[in-house]
Amino acid sequence: MLTLQYQDPNTKARAGVLKTSRGELLTPFFMPVGTNATVKGVSNEDLLEMNSQLLLSNTYHLYLRPGMEVIKKFGGLHNFMGWEKPILTDSGGFQVFSLAKLRKITDEGVTFQSHIDGSRHFFTPELVVDVEGILGSDMIMPLDECAPYPCERKMAEESVRRTTLWARRSRKHFLANQREEKKQMLFGIVQGATFEDLRRQSAEEILNIGFDGYAIGGVSVGETVKEMFEAVEWVEPLLPREYPRYLMGIGLPDQIVRAVGEGIDMFDTCIPTRFGRHGTAFTRRGRVILRNAEFVDNEGPIDSECDCFVCQKYSCGYLRHLLNTGEILGLRFVSYHNVHFYLKLMRDIRQAIEKGRYSEFQKDFLGKYKVKE
RNA sequence: GGGGACGUGGUGUAGCCUGGUCAACAUGUCAGAUUGUCGAUCUGAAGAUCGCGAGUUCAAAUCUCGUCGUCCCCG
User: How far does chain A reach from its first CA to its final CA, in angstroms?
Assistant: First the structure.
């Protein structure tokens, strides 16, 4: 359950506290993505230093490597990776959709070939819940069927039907096997692609089953930003206020600022670290591509308003050199700055909601932040 | 002194024998994409009057001669 503390008077933005067995999380929050039990280029110590409340990891990747026997021996993902704060694990539904080869989906489950070595695997909703039980993550996502984009109506209907079917089985298996000491939360995922009635139908079906939180999935698959926000606008009004809402895989800073205003509480995306590795940094004025020649002799920091250690100490000219020569330190520094930027943004968002001034914050942020067309 | 090989975008090469979209590929450079991960990948752009000069020809990076340069072998 989400304890709501603040409701912005002029937008749907809200702030609250989400209780997990590993501590309380202040919403809205952003989860740095640590697919392979590591947020790429950023250490746990870094994350603590920049006050990350939790992180996200991945069932699909960890199941394939190092495998569940190893995780079991370590007593779960937290011990394995040395992270004591909460973890949310994604189910693998999206990864099977986006990474695996030769996937074959039936109502029973999904057969796929590993993107690593081509080996064949079979995921069922029950297996995924079990795997996430071994991982011991605090919030877990059920196996869903992520529809592609663009998507024919018939296929979207099918993915809604199957996602609901799997959600029911996931919930049942979860309740039957949930151990009191773990106290995991299981989220429901709404699908429905770009169809309003299917989105609503999916939301109603998922709500009927009942979960500890609700996610909007099937976004960040190539659809337009407009379509993504339509999915939010269709589904959000149906979601109960006292449960956390999670917009999966989103988004760019301006998208997060907008989505919070639409009543979303939870976000994750690989963008800060991926863009960091590719040399793109985020600032309040928009993104900057540090590899660009204009930075070759720039002695200033990425963002003069940023208080992260990279901006305190290192110049754009030096960072560009590191990126240009392929030095790992460059990837790490920009990744650090970007994750720091996202986390600071979430704190600022929360503060604005607390003051009941979210619409002003939103207007101010979106005014300064240049979005590339 | 004698003989041989080679000179094509920043770099490394292909094309030459069998003249006919005046030029390809890799890499680098420049710019952009990247949304439940990707040190991946993709998309654009700029960049060579083919060492230089002359000749043959309707037409030369390509054939001939000269010249300059680099490298190798022999003395």
Answer: 38
